[in-house]
Write a structure and sequence with these properties.
Length: 266
């Protein structure tokens, strides 16, 4: 009888020991590993809470208390943090008054306030996040990369922004802004989020390395000195127009002068 009881106890001891070991490991994991995650979550939650409070004071009159949109402004669900950072860091938003297009203005908010609002809007729905600097870094590009950036710019962007990035008029009082002096971060964000009249170019359409090439091309043009009359850098249309006006106008003046001299001679 004793030997049978000891066998039964021995068989029951194994699952009990396994269960005890699992409980012990779980307790150790809960005590050590999640501590950093909890701290990070707490920090992010505080940032989102601050962003929401500022959003409701600054943005809700047009976009709704929860970013759902109103008759004065579109919904922000799914636009992502990058769109918010672009609009607020260039102070296109908040708009002082409704208009055909939001112009760039002097920034009124700190970088931290903008990031807080951006992180809050990111929680409303998935969208493009604020990029890391390596995603648009153009410092290590080769001449071939920059040349490819020029080709991409002329193919996808010059119809609105003109060949030299000087901007241009669009229908209904809208316009494509000039690109001189624009931060690389904001060029990247504009390409990915499509502000106002601009189309959205996803990473599948224009990968990050091509975006960096476009930025490198634009920054390279800024560094090049202008030779002669640039005529706004608008390309062959303005050059042809100037040639016709000045050339034919000059010839007409010369012809008139010659005719008047001939009449006087008689």
């Amino acid at each position: 009888m004793r030997s049978g009881t000891s066998r039964r106890r021995h068989r029951a001891a194994r699952p009990l020991a396994l269960a005890f070991a699992l409980v012990l490991m779980g307790a150790l994991y809960a005590a050590l590993s999640p501590a950093t995650q909890v701290a990070a979550d707490t920090g992010m939650s505080a940032q989102v809470a601050e962003g929401k409070a500022l959003f409701q004071v600054t943005c809700s009159s047009c976009h709704g208390l929860n970013g759902e949109g109103t008759s004065q402004g579109p919904s922000l669900v799914g636009v992502g943090a990058a769109a918010v950072e672009f609009q607020m860091a260039t102070n296109r938003m908040p708009m002082a008054k409704p208009g055909a297009q939001a112009p760039r203005k002097v920034v009124q908010y700190t970088a931290q306030e903008i990031n807080n609002i951006a992180e809050y809007v990111q929680t409303l729905g998935p969208g493009p996040a604020i990029p890391k600097s390596e995603q648009y870094d153009y410092s290590g590009l080769s001449d071939d990369d920059i040349a490819r950036g020029g080709e991409l710019f002329r193919t996808n962007c010059s119809a609105c922004h003109q060949a030299a990035g000087n901007g241009g008029a669009l229908p209904n009082g809208k316009y494509a802004p000039a690109l001189q002096g624009v931060e690389p971060l904001h060029i990247y964000e504009a390409i990915r989020t499509g502000p106002q009249q601009m189309p959205v170019f996803s990473a599948g359409a224009i990968p990050d390395e091509d975006v960096a090439s476009i930025i490198g091309y634009l920054k390279g043009m800024e560094e090049q000195p202008s030779a002669g009359f640039s005529l706004g850098g608008l390309g062959p249309v303005t050059e042809g127009f100037a040639a016709w006006v000045l050339g034919i106008g000059g010839l007409a003046l010369v012809a008139t002068w010659i005719a008047s001299r001939g009449a006087r001679a008689k």
